[in-house]
Amino acid sequence: MEPFKIHILGCGSALPTLHHNASSQIVEIREKLFMIDCGEGTQMQLRKSKIRFTKISAVFISHLHGDHCFGLIGMISTFGMLGRTATLHVYAPADFGPILQQQIDFFCSGLEFKVEFHPVDTSKSQVIYEDRSLTIETIPLEHRIACCGFIFREKPLKPHIRRDMLDFLQIPVSQINNIKAGADWTTESGQVIPNSRLVIPADPARSYAYCSDTRYIPTLHQLLCGIDTIYHESTYTSDYEDRARLYYHSTSKQAASVARDAGAKQLLLGHYSARYIDESKILAEAKTIFPNSKLTDEGKIFDV
């Protein structure tokens, strides 16, 4: 199975600490790298993770609070110094377009690669990226400013060829794609071998949802139904639920409720308030509702 991994570069909230960096992740899927959010310090975390800068093809910014986007212009500048030539695609709320262009004009004149900006409507759930193997769609969230999350979905995979049957029936290699597409095989004697005997069912397509800063949304699970792995901000424990509501954030119990109601297989917690030196209580509370909850931390890698 091709890798589908989440690399945690930063999982703290607005106030940087010695323990956590501002929000940023790398989604690695089928040898492609996508960045979600790019808080201050992301470049250093990329260095520590040994992820190749040049392989990042696109950056997805959930909203325009500094702890989610202050690191982008510095990273673009570094790309320029490293001699990048491939286009960098940036998906972000529409208001970020002129700001980003002004920063590029002022700090990064003479770039030898293109930065292509794609405005995102955070109020809609829609596909904003698609290639042969993947779609990425937005998730409307409720924060103090326009904000959305992102769902990464593998497209359905083709079944695996049974090599023993190909050899036994002497099926030409040229017919493999047809069989993967569902074709039967007819032998020289006229016997029809059904496709089900020629293939092993495909691995199930995987999916990952990133739910950035948001107040608890009781209906959010409807958009996340069947998602394998969910990252949901868990800024506070339940004893700060009033504060979470006031500042449009969520508690770990609320994040766990979303994962449970969506039928997820795995919940990743993050965006911890700087008040917590130890996030064990955040995890413990989430596990009371959704047992397969996990704490993110800089340098950790999770399989979807």
From TrEMBL:
InterPro entries: RibonucZ/Hydroxyglut_hydro (IPR036866), RNase_Z/BN (IPR013471). GO terms for molecular function: 3'-tRNA processing endoribonuclease activity; zinc ion binding. The keyword Cell membrane does not apply. It catalyses: Endonucleolytic cleavage of RNA, removing extra 3' nucleotides from tRNA precursor, generating 3' termini of tRNAs. A 3'-hydroxy group is left at the tRNA terminus and a 5'-phosphoryl group is left at the trailer molecule. Its EC number is 3.1.26.11. Zn(2+) 2 binds at D67, H68, D213, H271. Binds 2 Zn(2+) ions. Zinc phosphodiesterase, which displays some tRNA 3'-processing endonuclease activity. Probably involved in tRNA maturation, by removing a 3'-trailer from precursor tRNA. Belongs to the RNase Z family. This is Ribonuclease Z. It comes from Segatella baroniae B14. The gene is rnz.
